Amino acid sequence: xxxxxxxxxxxxxxxxxxxxxxxxxxxxxxxxxxxxxxxxxxxxxxxxxxxxxxxxxxxxxxxxxxxxxxxxxxxxxxxxxxxxxxxxxxxxxxxxxxxxxxxxxxxxxxxxxxxxxxxxxxxxxxxxxxxxxxxxxxxxxxxxxxxxxxxxxxxxxxxxxxxxxxxxxxxxxxxxxxxxxxxxxxxxxxxxxxxxxxxxxxxxxxxxxxxxxxxxxxxxxxxxxxxxxxxxxxxxxxxxxxxxxxxxxxxxxxxxxxxxxxxxxxxxxxxxxxxxxxxxxxxxxxxxxxxxxxxxxxxxxxxxxxxxxxxxxxxxxxxxxxxxxxxxxxxxxxxxxxxxxxxxxxxxxxxxxxxxxxxxxxxxxxxxxxxxxxxxxxxxxxxxxxxxxxxxxxxxxxxxxxxxxxxxxxxxxxxxxxxxxxxxxxxxxxxxxxxxxxxxxxxxxxxxxxxxxxxxxxxxxxxxxxxxxxxxxxxxxxxxxxxxxxxxxxxxxxxxxxxxxxxxxxxxxxxxxxxxxxxxxxxxxxxxxxxxxxxxxxxxxxxxxxxxxxxxxxxxxxxxxxxxxxxxxxxxxxxxxxxxxxxxxxxxxxxxxxxxxx
Amino acid sequence: xxxxxxxxxxxxxxxxxxxxxxxxxxxxxxxxxxxxxxxxxxxxxxxxxxxxxxxxxxxxxxxxxxxxxxxxxxxxxxxxxxxxxxxxxxxxxxxxxxxxxxxxxxxxxxxxxxxxxxxxxxxxxxxxxxxxxxxxxxxxxxxxxxxxxxxxxxxxxxxxxxxxxxxxxxxx
Lengths: 598, 172
Prior knowledge:
The structure holds 2 protein chains of 2 kinds.
Chain A: H1 9-13, E1 15-16, H2 17-27, E2 32-35, H3 42-49, E3 55-58, H4 62-76, E4 80-84, H5 88-102, E5 107-113, H6 129-133, E6 139-142, H7 149-161, E7 167-173, H8 174-178, E8 180-181, H9 202-214, E9 218-222, H10 224-228, H11 231-244, E10 248-250, E11 265-268, H12 275-283, E12 286-290, H13 296-299, E13 310-315, E14 329-332, H14 335-348, H15 355-369, H16 385-399, E15 403-407, H17 411-419, E16 428-429, H18 440-450, E17 455-461, H19 472-477, E18 483-488, H20 493-502, H21 518-524, E19 528-532, H22 535-547, E20 552-557, H23 592-596
Parallel strand pairs in A: 2-3, 2-4, 4-5, 5-7, 6-7, 9-10, 9-12, 10-11, 12-13, 13-14, 15-16, 15-17, 17-18, 18-20, 19-20
Antiparallel strand pairs in A: 1-8
Helix pairs in contact in A: 2-3, 2-7, 4-5, 4-18, 9-14, 11-14, 12-15, 16-17, 16-22
Chain B: E1 10-19, H1 24-34, E2 41-48, E3 53-62, H2 64-75, E4 80-85, H3 86-89, E5 92-103, H4 107-118, E6 122-126, E7 130-137, H5 139-153, E8 154-159, E9 163-166
Antiparallel strand pairs in B: 1-3, 1-4, 2-3, 5-7, 5-8, 5-9, 6-7
């Protein structure tokens, strides 16, 4: 480099690696970091101390830092940012990283590392972070040269948010953070090798349009990819589904992509999906999958999945196409771009829809709807968990507050998905792919940080909530008025349900023994605790919870024997659903092969 | 285009052009082991120092759907520039190099030399009791020669694994 192109001495010499990192984060639009300090990242904490542009939220466990960043990312559409130390800091973050990987959530996680000269020496708090997180991330980096530092941070954000989003780790040795170097702005040219396709192929779009127009029994199956493509994609999905008059179902990850109150919405599909959604999938002749990945929780037994259908699959990740299910019309592209192209091509295509067949299909769907598969009987003072979620939904709607829901994992999660309606995207945060108990409370923290005035509720189970209960302390410190709504059935309910249905009722280790007093627990963490023992208490407690501008734990004692229905047992097909007792079961029960599945 | 509904296994030689950076081979290998794909052979070496590119050749096998999946999974790794299924794309050359140590004396020694000559293996090291042959060719040819050397006094084999390139003017 000639001296003429060298920046001023103050530019080159005055910045430490830690300052470079913070400047790059700021330039990437980071407003909040969720983190936990430790020896290897102290230089970054020093740099944080000396600035006001980026806020740091101190969590109580690194796993929670990642989940909080996920909640932040999923409710805003931005990249979530995490900062943890080397060794245990990084290994604690791994669960969160895999969670973000499976649910395609954009996260950049900075991990401290021992100084470069000690790497490989089993130094104190050393772990092979890039080795450990390689299969846990979309991509990861170990920065060993000062001149790569700023460009690596910029690249990490590009990778995290581009294509199918995901978590990215940057491992930062302490000597790099302390050393002096030069900041470089984000590159103006394209990435050398990673350039995902976002615009769909026009020929494939025309094929899809023709198939959907001529379909007699079409169905739209929309997933988290639509949410990830931004709110515009959800609006386009709604527009397309309405203009074409198609039935639409959402995956667990896709809830909110299509308004739940719309008459064309069939509810969620899959293992605990509605009868109408699953039977529409089973009986369709043309399926349009957008932004979903034919997950095993959705397809059931593969050789019986939508057996007489032609399938169109639009996904931004080519590796999701033809992975589990062979499709006839693959479309690679961003969900919003695909829907935009589809709407344009729909108008341009001269073929007419088969209206009489479509009307007949809707008549059939309405008949399935008539089974009212989510009906439950609230016939005593003992609160049914479904009723608790339904009242929570109705009373939050009544409050008029902007509401965000997170969940833990298990029965309560499924009831939340079934009975809480979502009209808009980015309002529903749940651990879909990894199924991480302990996700909901930290995720709710992240949502509340991003939306300080909104009503943020973690619908929880009494077992899951204990997995990251320490975050009540974070919630208290930052005065985040997060609400924890526990459906307390004193069991790991989903485990108990499977033991009941698949393991002869041998409830091995699934009883929630020695539970804390959640009211006192809330109080000990400077929050408000409430308990609903019977249906008489429920509405009052929910109303109070909504009104209180502080962290609240509501402990709702629910019927401990209640199971989640409908249910497609593992290894069964969509038309082999188990319905609630008292409803006519279409089920063939669980096969031996099914028992071996999860 | 291959028929995606075909469930029979086929072999595939896949060429992968990658960024020459630390960890890239681990990503590729981790992908294969993590997702349960076969690796029959894998080679890697830098091929473009200026462009900082390395070329990986993987020989694998699976159903059409699995091989498509392998290519798609490789292609979405961030440091991967290009992925090509040479088996599918047309005529291509597969070559492997082996160093083969054979020990013996008398007629065995002469027999080894005669066979080496027939197989166009070169003698690259010799003592009064041993030879090291260098041989290049398809895997099958190498296998055939090595099997012939076994009763004669095969001591040790070192093989590179397959490298592959398309015939004609076409490049990756």
